């Protein structure tokens, strides 16, 4: 199933059901795409306005970057489901003999790495999107600044949500060195971009109040 082609109602129903996919990773990717799109909305409402002629090319460049990020995030909605399925199957592998235990451990470790790679990519894209939201908020149409604030808030939520999917996979890894490297990468992004997203939303609130 292509989770980006079904209706919003169907997607939410799938999330609420027993199936392990889509899950938190796919939901985070979708929320990030929606947040990024709100930045583009600000851009769309800015381009062509005489008042913002001096920043029009900057805004067009931002919209181009946002469109690429949005599309990549949408692609990761399905990719997250694809990498989780082998992990789900691996949990059910037999472990009655030493050979079966060793094979299960080998398959599990690779599946965990694959399942961890997608939320890390989602996080990276959300970081890039938060950078864009800051510029959309600063340069975009003042009448649409609230949308940049919502976009930043959603990208922050997606960033945090994706990190949970990193940490739940690294927690089960036998290769602790690899796990700690992934955890550090995720934590570094959280440490840098949660405050930046908060800075954007605070900037927007100050302009609105």
Q: In percent, how helical is the residue content?
A: over 70%
Please tell me the overall pLDDT: 96
Low-pLDDT parts are none
Q: Counting H and I runs of at least 4 residues, what is the number of helices? A: 6
Radius of gyration: 20 Å
**Largest sheet, described in full?**
none
Question: Distance N terminus to C terminus?
Answer: 44 Å
Order of helices and strands, N to C?
HHHHHH
Shape, principal axes of CA atoms: elongated
Counting DSSP E segments of at least 2 residues, the number of strands comes to 0
Give a short summary of the structure:
The chain has 209 residues and is mainly α. The protein has helices spanning 8-16, 24-44, 56-91, 98-139, 145-170, 176-208.
Task: Provide structural commentary.
- The chain has 209 residues and is mainly α.
- The chain is 80% helix and 0% strand.
- The chain is built from six helices and no strands.
- α2 runs parallel beside α4 (98-139), α3 (56-91) packs antiparallel against α4 (98-139) and α4 packs antiparallel against α5.
- The longest helix is centred in the middle third of the chain and has 42 residues, at 98-139.
Question: Strands, helices and their partners?
Answer:
Layout: H1 8-16, H2 24-44, H3 56-91, H4 98-139, H5 145-170, H6 176-208
Helix pairs in contact: 2-3, 2-4, 2-5, 3-4, 4-5, 4-6, 5-6
